[in-house]
Structures are given as C-alpha cells and as structure tokens.
Amino acid sequence: MDRSRTPASQRKRQKGMHSPKFSCSYEIKFNNFVIFIMQRKMGITRRTFLMELARSKGFRVESELSDSVTHIVAENNSYPEVLDWLKGQAVGDSSRFELLDISWLTACMEAGRPVDSEMKYRLMEQADRFPTLNTPESEVPSFTASKVSQYSCQRKTTLNNCNKKFTDAFEIMAENYEFRENEIFCLEFLRASSVLKSLPFPVTRMKDIQGLPCMGDQVRDVIEEIIEDGESSRAKDVLNDERYKSFKQFTSVFGVGVKTSEKWFRMGLRTLEEVKADKTLKLSKMQRAGFLYYEDLVSSVSKAEADAVSLIVKNTVCTFLPDALVTITGGFRRGKKIGHDIDFLITNPGPREDDELLHKVVDSWKKQQFGRDLRRYATHERKMMLDNHALYDKRKRIFLKAGSEEEIFAHLGLDYVEPWERNA
Q1: CATH of the domain at 21
Q2: Please, what's the b/e burial string for 342-358 (b: 16 or more CB within 10 A of its CB; e: otherwise)?
Q3: pTM of the full structure
C-alpha cells in the first residue's frame, strides 16, 4: 500500500492502535487490568523502568495503546492534556479507559496488587488556582498549578521555604527509602519536596496541591496527616526506627554507604562506638580517614569560613595558573549561610592547560602543613623566627646564614627530613 496516500487520521490510528505487545517473561496475575503508561512528560527511560517493574509484579502492561487497554497511567499530565493526547491517537471514545495518575501505579507497586482506582487517583477537571494565605483574593496574582513543571530547572526556588514542615517529613521518608535501596519511593518524596519548596505560599489544605506534579499517593497521605495532626506519624516512626538510626550514623562517616551499613547492621552493630570497638572489621582507606577526621567532616561550615578558604584556594591555584578563575559553587552559591562542605569550580580562560594542577595545589598545601609546624617549632622551642626569606635568632638578634634546607634544619637542631617524607 502506498503510505503517502493514506489519510492522516488513519495513519495515526495505525501508529497508536497496534496489536497488544507485552513482556512474556513474567507471569500475568491480574488479567482484568491492561495498563498503558503514557511516555508524555515522563521520558522513555523512566517509562521502560516502570513498565518492567509493573510486569514483574504480575501486571499486564502494553507497550502500545490498543483496544484491550483498560487503564491509562499518566505522570504530570492534566485531564485535558490526556484527552488531547488521546484525540491525537485517533481514539474516538476515551470513556472506556480509566485515566489515572502515576500515584495509582506506585500504590499498586507498594501493595503488590491492584488497588481501587479511587477518586484521588483519577484524572479529572479541577480548579488549579490558589490564593496566597492572608491576601485578599482580588489582589492575588493567579497561580496555575498545572503550569508548575516537574523539572526543578524550570522552577524558581529560593531559600524561603513556606512548607518546611512538609518537606522535612518528605526528606526523612526519602532517606529511609534510600537506606532500603527503594529508588522509586525515595525519588517520589524528594521530587515532592522539591515542588513544595518552590511554592510561594504555605499549603494549608489538600485542595492546595491539586494539579501539582509529583504528588503521589504516599506524599498525599503524609500531607493530609500533617494538615490534620500537625505532624507525620510515619516520619516519626522512621526517626524512632533502630535500623534508620544506625544507618544514619554509619553513612555519616566518609566512605561508608548503604551496602557497608547493611553489612554492619547484620553483624549486630548499632552505633559508631561499636564499629570502632570491633577489631575484626577491615576498613577501607577512605573509611579509616572518615573515622580519623570524623568531627571535622561532620561539623558545619559558615559562609565566612567558606570565603576564607576560597581565598586560600584562589591564591594557591593562581601561583600555578595566574589567569585561572576559582568560583564557589554548591550551597553557598545558592545563598546558604551554613554548609557541610565547600565546592569549587576551577577554570582557565586562556589556552594554557595543566592536567596536574590539582596535584600541584594539594602538594603545596601538604608542604605548608609541614612548613607551619617547622615555624612553630622554631618559635616555641628554639626562640627563633622562620619565614619564607630568613631564619632569625631572637636571643642573639642575628640572621643565621643558610644556603639550603639542610642548613635550616641544622640551625634548628633537627634531623633533615626529605621532601617525600613531609606528607604530614
């Protein structure tokens, strides 16, 4: 058949209404449910992952929209958007489908079986405009929830978080799922937290989140409980959970992740003190450093300290690449006053490159660790003053002649330490 002469509507039907295709590698347990997951606004990778996950749970999931589909699942698509998409697929009667939010599918995955397609899961016409709290409605600029993007790079989010009581609970839940290596529910709470942080008003009722992306079933349950009771019992249970508390401690050590935490927990270890006391454990080089410098690594860093460190980094880098630009990135660049680390971006606008730059910078600091103690020793033990130019004996009030490092060490009464032996 000459495809170029086929009517456009018929070509769309041929494209969208193929014969059923689903994985045969899993046992189908729920034959009355034939699911199609829309790729629109989701992306092919996430869609493929969700399809295979649902199939592994015994659901029948089709890769193409067909006449046998009973449930259409969409993420971050409003009811009108799904209807428009179905019209584009030349589907005449869309009422034969259950049009559901992705939260229905995640609820099914958690339960391991189909859950009722209640009103909270169904896509339908809804009001999307919300007034800002305590502001007369006539003065409030319209806020359209359906226009809030699922992507944080398309949202403006300041440090002024109007919904901290919700996002704190979400992040506790997300961390707990991360410790249990459940990426789906971890991301569900993290994305919901990100969305609520971007809102210019505090959520005070369930209607306020209608039409917002990333508001899954579990997320809604936590929001509803906080609105009604002022706190989340689920988040509270997590904070009191022995496994969560142990993993929280273990992963605070540099070089320790979920796998190692799981291993230690199964060994019966519950605290860092118990880990340090267990002489049978073989720690990696990073983990040994993590315990050695634990207090420094977990302590907070102020903006003033970050600026001071930035100056040190800039001065050291510029001794090797004078035109280099050193920029603070991460949390401090986003306006935070307190952080746990300092991130830098080092760029060189000129044609010159130096692949060994970072090694040179670190080596120079290692020498300064050592050099600082050398000066301290000279001052406190020998009553001398050592700087980059000379060695001065304060008791004799004379400069001591020295043509080499070996002579400096000799004046100080020290055995000479070779440069490669100064990694203090």
Answers
A1: 3.40.50.10190
A2: beeeeebeeeeeeeeee
A3: 0.56
